[in-house]
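ok so for the tutorial part 2 we go from a plain amino acid sequence to predicted structure tokens. step 1 is just haveing the sequence, like this:
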Amino acid sequence: MVHLNVTLPDSLVKEVRESDYAGWFTPFEFNNARSPDHSKRFYYQKRYEWKSQLLNEWIDRFAPDRRVLDLFCANGAFSVRAALAGAKEVTGVDAEESRISVADLLARSLEGHVDTKLGFHVRDVHEVLAEDEVYDLVMCFGGLYHVSDPAAMLEKLYHKTSKYAIIQTSHVVQAPGSWGWFRLPRGQDTYVPQWPSETGGWSLTAGCYRRLLRNAGFRILEEQRPPYALRPRFRWYAAMVEKVV
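step 2 — the prediction. this is what the tokens look like for a chain of 245 residues:
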């Protein structure tokens, strides 16, 4: 649960109460309202708590006074974090319309509370990465393991940032070495990627992600993993990286 020290006007309280619970990928609480309960709210809440422990310190350190692009932003929890940290501008992108609708509501709730230009868009991340616009910091949380070619996406991401990126991904294999496998969608014996409705996904070792990041042109500044006892449930890898020119 993310608590925002914001008192919403009656019109936004009504919007929060009437919003689609499916859009609240990360639950929020305001001074006078809270997001509708998601059917997986306890899992989503615990997942956010642990993920924020990996990522928030980096966001607080690298987002201030920078233009930030948040890929796979879901309902904007980490975009909001970047705005509260003092980012100059934050652009969030996700394929799920219900999540972007909630993110837009959150942006409106922060009007007058932050100086950040905060905007969210229903977009194909591949199209966004193909555009010429460059950002100071690119955040890519959760979606990398779902794309058909993570190496190609990281290479595109390299050209999308002028300096820094924060990468977090899931389904990490708890083993040494640099290897992994791709899980085909259930019931299929061939795979044709169809973003944004791609299914299946990669399970790669942390060593493999390190190699992919370095091959894409990044220097790994810092890494984070969940505590060892939690890794069977939260199989994550996160890295704060710098573009090598």
